[in-house]
Specification:
The chain is α+β, with helices and mostly antiparallel strands and 134 residues long. It is 28% helix and 36% strand. The protein has three helices and six strands; from the N terminus they run E-E-H-H-E-E-E-H-E. A hairpin with a 5-residue loop joins strand 1 and strand 2. Helix 1 packs across helix 2. The longest helix has 20 residues. The mean pLDDT is 92.
Length: 134
């Protein structure tokens, strides 16, 4: 497998007050791979039809949302685990930390160790693509 990366610079002020420039690699996307693309590939790899896979992916999305709201972490063997993080306003006492001060932080995903290990041997190639500066 081949992945491309670009390089961008970032300016910092070091502890002595000097401006320092450092360079970092950035992943370059090969494009968007959507549900229809996934359904097509999965139908070719299984005995399921493409419409059946599309329906299964839609049902997966619905069940994932429902179970995350119920407090479950969703573990997909060989893929990873989805979970919710929470955040909220800081409180001075535990009693003050009420439900109205708590909200969803983000939906987290932690890749399965098997999947992470499969990514180790990816070869990276530099591209001259320039990323938009922030």
């Amino acid at each position: 497998m081949r992945r491309y990366y670009s390089v961008s610079s970032k300016k910092f002020i070091d502890k002595d007050g000097n401006e320092v420039v450092k360079f970092y690699p950035n992943a370059v996307s090969a494009g968007h791979y959507g549900s229809v693309d996934m359904a097509r590939d999965l139908s070719e790899a299984t005995s399921l039809s493409e419409p059946d896979v599309v329906s299964a992916l839609k049902a997966f999305s619905i069940v994932l949302e429902k179970r995350l709201k119920m407090g479950y972490n969703i573990k997909l063997d060989g893929i990873g685990t989805f979970s919710l993080s929470v955040t909220g306003e800081p409180c001075l006492t535990e009693k003050e930390c009420k439900p109205n001060k708590v909200r969803v932080g983000k939906i987290a995903f932690k890749a399965d160790s098997k999947l992470r290990k499969e990514m180790i041997d990816i070869k990276f190639y530099k591209t001259n693509l320039k990323r938009n500066k922030r």
